[in-house]
Amino acid sequence: MPAPDSPPTTLLRAATRPRLLVLLVVLLAAAAVCGRLGAWQLDRAQSRGEQLERQQVAARESAAPEPLGDVLAPQESFNGELVGRAVTVSGTYEAAGQLLVVDRVLDGRAGYLVLTPLRVTGGGAAGWTGADPVLPVVRGWVEDPADAVDLLEPPAGVVTVTGHLQVSEGGGQGASAPGQTDAVSSAQLVNSWGGPIYAGYVVLTEASPAQPAGLALLGPPTLGTSDSGNYNVQNLAYAAQWWIFGGFALFLWIRMVRDEAAGDPPVSQPVAAAARP
């Protein structure tokens, strides 16, 4: 019976043969290169993702105001990407519902936000068939409302408000005194102002007709990038490809060791002629 050219052996003996040891060094080097290239692509994915996010933030900060109805509908969930979006909206202030938001700091000084409900004209959004919704508007900031009584009175009649959207705050502890609250929370405000109400609020930057000049405006919010970071999908795919190549190099060596340990299959010998002329 024909014998195999290379008899079977243990995996350890096969793995320590010089030829496979040299191959292991080569493939380990290749896997290390693939791993480094994958890490480089991961860094690129993060840097390009952060760059794109900064561009989006800059574009949002410099964008022209849009009609509120094109951006957010009453009782609609507030998308985090809407924070800082410049909007314009028309309606009528309901002075009787105005509140002072306590413990708000501006330029290092503690004071109050002037929060006024704006009953939005025409429903505020295309296709809206419900009652005119109410929009919380932060008209400005005062240090001591007792010294600024004339400034607190909102303009009468229809006004057009331009400002930046902010997401509704979480519920606070409630009013510390009549006419005050500790949070700009739509979930709480709907109990006193009625509905329908928007899930966010507007920080006023300008109004027509103009409101009293003594109210300090807050200005646009500072928009930062995500703490968790955003990644460019294309570079993530490249990183995954390099790591797969590195893993395949190691798998190839393991497969070769197993084949070496199994030995060569028997080689068929030529059969002598049964008869000669």
From TrEMBL:
Keywords: Cell membrane, Membrane, Transmembrane, Transmembrane helix. The chain crosses the membrane at residues 20-39, 236-254. InterPro entries: Surf1/Shy1, Surf1/Surf4. GO terms for cellular component: plasma membrane. It is found in: Cell membrane; Membrane. It is a multi-pass membrane protein. Pfam families: SURF1 (PF02104). It comes from the Bacteria. Signal peptide: none annotated. Belongs to the SURF1 family. This is SURF1-like protein.
